[in-house]
Amino acid sequence: MQVSSRNSIADAVAGAVPDHGGFESVPASPSAASAHSHASSPPSSVHEHNTFRHTAAEIGFCFTIAMTQFLTEYLISGFAIELSKGPSSGATQSTSTGKFWPASLLSLILSAMLLIFARLSDMYGGYMCFMFGVVWLAIWTLIAGFWINSMLILDISRAMQGLAIAAFMPSTFAMVGSIYPEGPRKNFVLGLYSGCAPLGFFGGLLIAAALPVDQSGWYFWIAAGLSGITFVTAFLTVPSERTARRTPDRKMDWIGAVLITTGLILVSYGLAVEPYVRHSQQPGFPSWVVIGSLTLGLVLLAVALWYEGWCAKCPLLPFDFFAPKSVKAFCMACLCFYATYGAWLYNSVRFFQDPTGVAGGGSSSTSGTELAIWFLPTAIGGVVLCVVGGLLLHIVPIMVLLLLSALAWIAAPLLLVLAPLPLEYWKFVMPSMICATLGIDLTFTISIVFISSVQPLEYQGLAGAVCSILVNLAMSFALSISEIVSKKAASVMQGSSGVSPTTWGYRGAFTYAAASAAVGFIICALLVRISRSAVDSKAEGGRRGSTSSMSTMAEMRLGSWGVQNEAARSRLQGEAARSRLQGEAARSNV
């Protein structure tokens, strides 16, 4: 596939020499690029057929795109292990926000800011947002590495890392959509992007697990170095004039953005501090900090709902998006499933490192590279399902796959609840890993296909953004809720059955995760109905020109993230057609 794509580059893409200047109005398609070249300069084979100056530049661009996905997964998965090192280093000891607050901050800010940066990419193109994102990520991962033992700096750094990822995620897709036309070459790039997700997930776990406690800063410094390299390759290889402003007529909904972001942060903070902030006179009763944060956050979200639905001229998330049948119920089920994943991932890492939770008991525990190897099935299964996931949609009824993934979600944490101590890897841990992998990959694939299949053309980009928001928002809230349940279980079961309170806390968190998945299963069974014909047509449309299921899933995920305004694209294509007719007339006259 790589050979055929490399041989056809002159026919597959059109473009110009990279120029990192200001925003320019640029062609949105190969035909529009032809019209642009006719209008601005004499015909040139280089200008008409080559986006990149040479093959090395395109390789660098592909590396840049793939590295953004790697870094995203790296910073989410590996931090689960870094967080577990906190109690010994003092990094995560806090009396106010809990052990999972630094982890939930990245997902929270990412989900809250994603629609905002998607709109900015709509307005100004992807290049500047992308460059800001990778630079910002490099800065704040570098800072986090130096102040790894400061809870305040770690919190701020994780929030800024989420902001950086929110900046370059939609702009990455914007650049791919503006540089590559539909075809095998674009699908290969998207497949490369998708394939880096499981690699980044396992890479983060492996590096974090291999580093000793006193060298934890290197986990962030490695991310900072990779971000710096990504910035350099982007500056040298991204043809920024092809990714400049596309739809300046689009407006930013600043009021909705502020209301949504502030509301989500306040609600998440209220949940995070609840186990640690109690009224001194009434044990168990939340303090004014909890009540105030939750109340104000919910009020702001209610106002945002009203404003977006009835007042905003250009809402970030239109109500029409949820109008198709089963979309609202399916999104609720996905929130339940992804909440299970967040609670399972972060609690399992800590559980496996607990001295009472592994074979041998006593002072033994699983740590270092052994712990990363325990998670190896998630990486292998992720790669396999990334490749064959699209094919399964045409072999197995999609509702069967959805319910199967729901059962896998229930089983993953439930196996750890029922597992006797000391844990046995092959009987309980590995099956739990496989179930979690089936759950996350099947659910995400189905969500991409279903949500994009029922949305009109103008919402295709928004569909991809919503799929990512569901994952990160659910994980953010689930970490705080699982900690509330864990603290309560440890308190209630203290001194019973010869099991330590810490172990009861983990079992309580896993029980919450299984219950959340069970609610999702019930919602899917009773309220979700997915049309096979609609999904088949969407999948077929996304697979034209490519035999890779991996790239098909990425294609459906991307849409164009709302970057290519359909009216502008039609106008440019019309201009291109007129330009071709004028050129043919001129040649016939000669």
Question: Can you give a write-up of this model?
Answer:
GO terms for molecular function: transmembrane transporter activity. The chain crosses the membrane at residues 59-80, 100-120, 127-148, 160-180, 192-212, 218-240, 252-273, 285-307, 327-346, 371-393, 400-422, 428-450, 462-484, 504-528. It comes from Neohortaea acidophila. Keywords: Membrane, Transmembrane, Transmembrane helix. InterPro entries: MFS (IPR011701), MFS_dom (IPR020846), MFS_trans_sf (IPR036259). The protein has 590 residues and is mostly helical. Helix 5 packs antiparallel against helix 9 (151-179), helix 8 packs antiparallel against helix 11 (217-237) and helix 14 (327-353) runs antiparallel to helix 20. It is 74% helix and 0% strand. It folds into three domains: 1-16 and 24-30 and 47-251, Growth Hormone, Chain: A, CATH 1.20.1250; 253-313; 318-565, Up-down Bundle (Growth Hormone, Chain: A). The radius of gyration is 25 Å and the shape is globular.
Low-confidence stretches: 1-50, 87-95, 359-363, 541-573, 586-590
What is the terminal separation in angstroms?
Answer: 42 Å
CATH topology call of the largest domain? Growth Hormone, Chain: A
Secondary-structure element order, as H and E? HHHHHHHHHHHHHHHHHHHHHHH
Q: What sort of overall outline do the alpha carbons produce when their principal axes are compared?
A: globular
Kindly give the count of domains.
3
